[in-house]
Amino acid sequence: MKAEAPAPRSGGVQSLERAFAILERMADAGGVISLSQLATDASLPLPTIHRLVRTLVDLGYVRQEASRQYSLGPRLIRLGETTSRMLGRWARPHMERLAQELGESVNLAMLDGDQVVYVGQVMASQNSMRMFTEVGRRALPHSTGVGKAIMAQLDPAEVRGLLARTGMPARTEHTITSPDEFALELERTRQRGYALDEGEQEVGVRCVAVAVPDAPQRLALSVSGPLPRMTDDFVASASGPLHRTARAIAAEMRGARP
């Protein structure tokens, strides 16, 4: 099915809108795409696509590969890194309210390649024993609540490919290390509406996480704490506020009111 070209917005600059649509379609294609496929996906004439792509190449936002296909360029890296740091700032007021409401630490993480990276963290002040996850810390997604929440949204073949690349090493004795068992865990996550880390990243720590819906990046929000405080009743009561906060963060990223 042929994709529709984006309709020009009132007061918008059509060439700019088309350039960003090209970048997004390249990202959707995995970062590399042919010029003819871009023209088909964008429903635009090939000469128009070629002119826009050449401009993006000259600016460093797109590069031409030896195969004559086009890929996302290195100049986007700086923009992406800066935006990743900004995520925590945009989300922080919502995370602070959640930490105050639940009395436990709140984390925001995104999928970056085959790892999750923590981009935001708010510690609860009510408890003397707090959980601390350093912003910028990376972890393999199979052993984390945020990773499970994100991967529950992915195509099963994509999940299996990621797990094959990481090898699923055991962080603790509780870490799931079998792809088949992990697939069942993701199905349980989808059915109950949230993911659990049952001491799989750190012994004695339990985490409940949900995906941030409709976000331009694969993100998840979590609440974590010591096992004695993270009871089944707490997890059940935390699910609603987590989902509500995840929706608020998604709205914040879209520049809309939650």
The level of helicity is: 40-55%
Shape: elongated
Q: Determine the structural class based on helices, strands and strand pairing.
A: alpha+beta
Assembly type: single chain
H/E element string?
A: HEHHEEHEEEHHHEEEH
CATH class of the largest domain: Alpha Beta
Q: What is the fold-level CATH name, i.e. the topology of the largest domain?
A: Beta-Lactamase
The Rg value, from CA coordinates, equals: 20 Å
Number of domains: 2
Explained architecture:
It is a single chain. With 258 residues, the protein is an alpha+beta fold. The chain has two domains: 14-73, Winged helix-like DNA-binding domain superfamily/Winged helix DNA-binding domain (Arc Repressor Mutant, subunit A, Orthogonal Bundle); 79-254, Beta-Lactamase (2-Layer Sandwich). It has helices at residues 14-28, 35-42, 46-59, 75-102, 145-151, 156-166, 179-192, 232-254, and strands spanning 32-33, 62-64, 70-72, 105-112, 115-122, 138-139, 195-198, 205-211, 219-226. The chain has a six-stranded antiparallel β-sheet with strand order 6-5-4-9-8-7, sandwiched between helices. Strands 1-3-2 form a three-stranded antiparallel β-sheet. A hairpin with a 2-residue loop joins strand 4 and strand 5 (115-122). The two termini are 33 Å apart.
